């Protein structure tokens, strides 16, 4: 393995560790530190997801810089936001501002991380290497979840104290990531990484990719917001329980995600898109049925029904990694290599427009009709993913037929 690939493994792994100690715990943070309601939880997604909408424009604004240097800026923004939240408990509106700063860094890094990864890997081992990247990230997410679980279980970490040590540790890890990116910047001189100009790209050939992005914007909100909120609001579970579930999901993902990369190389992107669609439909249909059972009193909130929601939560966490398939699909159909970064950036902006709308509407649906309708609706919408899988055709030269 090339030295720069090893360094980039470390960059992605430590970034995942930092996210496990911050973003994965935000729902508990909002509840414990600020006592937010379900409706407020939905509206918080505006400052948290707005950076995703702005992602394309920020990447375009910074297009004179290399991808790696943009990644440095992204990690410094994330560091600033999470350290302020860790060192203080600011007023609610000030908290939302620094949440925005942290989220801007995270979202700015998302398209760049895949663009750098695709530029580093050998063309004949893309699926396998991308699977290894995601597998390493998942492994460090598990490490972060273990640290969080132990910290909250023993009382070392708390969201009701002045200093949030779990966030401070997350910020310290991000500083190490910045140092590694500086080292990587000195090692790499690939033209596609260092000498690119990001421009607006919207091609009809990528229409199915855009549809997948829009659908992920809806599904992502269920994964990140309302799936854990069921455990927090309805079942009254704390950060230690959520961390334990993240540990289980990450442990399974260590084996699942590299296998996913190998399966993509072996069975093809179209077949994996089918599996992705079916997993979303099944998970959210069952999630909705269980939530209806809890709220109606038809089933217990302990014993096997509780174990069932835990299992679905873990599967749901694993399914988020299926996003790798969308990136590989775009790579296969891209008319030009230079289209990848701007199209990924545009995709993130589009999916976040949908995400913000979905979060807001999800809060209304939860309060007005009941939480189970959120999951039934998303299960129905996920039929669109199935339709895309039927429509996808990739010719032998990698172009969409």
Question: How would you describe this protein?
Answer:
The structure is a single chain. With 401 residues, this protein is mainly α. The protein has one domain (3-391): Growth Hormone, Chain: A. Helix content is 79%, strand content 0%. The chain starts with a helix and ends in a 10-residue tail after the last helix. Residues 191-198 have low confidence and may be disordered.
Q: What is the assigned CATH homologous superfamily?
A: MFS general substrate transporter like domains
CATH topology term? Growth Hormone, Chain: A
Second rung of CATH, namely the architecture:
Up-down Bundle
Query: Which geometry do the CA atoms define?
Result: globular
State which percent range the strand residues make up.
Answer: under 5%
Structural class call reads mainly alpha
Order of helices and strands: HHHHHHHHHHHHHHHHH
- Helix percentage: over 70%
Tally of separate domains: 1
Which regions are unreliable across 5 or more consecutive residues at pLDDT < 50? 191-198
The count of DSSP E runs of length 2 or more, i.e. the number of strands, is 0
What would the average pLDDT be, to the nearest integer? Answer: 83
CATH class, please?
Mainly Alpha
Radius of gyration: 20 Å
């Amino acid at each position: 393995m090339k030295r720069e690939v090893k360094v980039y493994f470390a960059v992605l792994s430590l970034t995942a560790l930092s996210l496990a100690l911050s973003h994965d715990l935000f729902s508990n943070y909002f509840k414990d530190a600020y006592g937010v309601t379900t409706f407020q939880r939905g509206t918080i997604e505006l400052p948290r997801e707005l950076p995703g909408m702005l992602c394309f424009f920020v990447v375009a604004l910074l297009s004179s810089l290399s991808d790696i240097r943009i990644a440095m800026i992204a990690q410094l923004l994330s560091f600033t936001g999470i350290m302020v939240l860790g060192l203080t408990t600011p007023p609610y509106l000030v908290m939302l501002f620094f949440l925005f700063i942290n989220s801007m860094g995270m979202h700015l890094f998302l398209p760049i991380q895949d663009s750098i990864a695709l530029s580093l890997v050998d063309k004949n081992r893309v699926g396998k290497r991308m699977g290894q990247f995601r597998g390493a990230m998942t492994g460090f997410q598990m490490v972060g979840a273990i640290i969080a679980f132990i910290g909250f279980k023993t009382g070392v970490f708390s969201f009701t104290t002045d200093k949030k040590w779990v966030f401070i540790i997350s910020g310290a890890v991000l500083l190490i990531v910045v140092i590694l990116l500086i080292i990587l910047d000195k090692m790499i001189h690939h033209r596609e990484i260092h000498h690119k100009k990001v421009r607006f790209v919207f091609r009809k050939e990528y229409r199915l990719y855009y549809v997948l992005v829009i659908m992920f914007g809806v599904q992502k909100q269920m994964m990140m917001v309302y799936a854990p909120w069921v455990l927090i609001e309805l079942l009254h579970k704390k950060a230690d329980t959520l961390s334990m579930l993240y540990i289980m999901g990450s442990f399974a993902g260590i084996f699942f995600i590299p296998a996913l990369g190998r399966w993509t190389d072996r069975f093809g992107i179209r077949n994996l898109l089918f599996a992705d669609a079916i997993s979303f439909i099944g998970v959210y249909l069952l999630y909705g049925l269980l939530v209806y059972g809890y709220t109606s009193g038809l089933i217990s909130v302990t014993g096997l029904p509780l174990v069932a929601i835990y299992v679905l939560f873990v599967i749901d966490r694993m399914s988020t990694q299926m996003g790798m398939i969308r990136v590989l699909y775009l790579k296969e159909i891209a008319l030009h290599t230079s289209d990848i970064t701007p199209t990924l950036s545009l995709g993130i902006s589009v999916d976040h427009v949908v995400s913000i709308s979905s979060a807001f509407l999800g809060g209304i649906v939860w309060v007005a009709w009941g939480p189970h309708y959120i999951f039934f609706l998303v299960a129905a919408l996920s039929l669109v993913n199935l339709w895309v899988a039927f429509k996808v055709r990739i010719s032998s030269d990698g172009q969409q037929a």
